[in-house]
Write a structure and sequence with these properties.
Length: 71
């Protein structure tokens, strides 16, 4: 993927897999809905990461290593 921008009061759903972004930007009051039931989520960001205020994360599943973030 190229640039990811999630707008205020939106929800981003990610399930097991690898995601590569150039830029990763979350505006205020975003919910990250992470489904790790089928395995880990790997997020690679090539340039910049920005989490604004009041970002919430919800988890579904019981994976030992749920999220790996790399740069």
């Amino acid at each position: 993927y190229n640039n990811l921008q999630v707008f205020s009061r939106s929800t981003l759903h990610l399930s097991a897999g690898t995601y590569v972004f150039r830029n990763f930007r979350l505006e205020p009051d975003v919910t990250l809905d992470l489904d790790i039931a089928a395995g880990p989520i790997v997020v690679q960001v090539l340039e910049s990461v920005n989490f604004a205020d009041r970002t919430r994360m919800t988890w579904v599943g019981n994976n030992v290593n749920p999220v790996v973030a790399t740069r």
